[in-house]
Give the backbone structure.
Amino acid sequence: MTMPRMAMVLAAGLGRRMRPLTEKLPKPLIPVAGKAMLDRVLDHLAQSGVGACVVNTHHQGEMIAEHLADRESPKVRLAPEPELLETGGSVNRALDELGPGPFFVVNGDVVWRDGEAPALQRLAGAWDDEEMDALLLLQGKARAIGYDGAGDFFIDPEGERLGTLHRRQQGAGAPFVFTGIQLLHPRLFDPAPGGRFSLNLLYDAALARGRLFGLVHDGEWFHIGTPEGLELAESHLGAAGPEVAKKAADDTP
């Protein structure tokens, strides 16, 4: 398939686990090695040929709007949410703008390094429109920098880097973590509930149909859920540590 030209960036989260940094900055604007996480995401999209994206906002959304005011590539349309719609509700509301074909959805607080080829281009290259409703980029749990959770998914067939997904059982572990980077088709939302809901609801429906797929990332992925995770990411990316983000927050009026 050709590279999708549209994307949605999810930037409306509250970032509670990143306090005190998120008391003055929305999490997507926290700098990692000198660059805001949101800018890192948008740069990846622009470099892969995505021309326009919808960015939803809620917590300190006016700061995100100001930060993106001069952004030219990709072209940004803000989608403020007075009340949080969660991941599924946010994307569902933007479907008319995202178009009739597959589109990217990326968390606004994701940091990754590409491997041999850009991850977004790998997703587009792996897409099979006849078989897939959703294609999630996964990272091997053992290679997920800063992640200490139980994992999210197994890939079938086992040992392959692309395949259908099934979830780990409660109380068990799984070898792959969802990175927050994905390629979705609008039919994933047919049907979808109105209002607030999680994309997990639609993943489970696609999984039951055998149409939820995963692709294993071949580069680095950083889990930045806490200030400690930020420090670890910056040590890998070459900055001094979370004092960079603290200074940015302290300098904010």
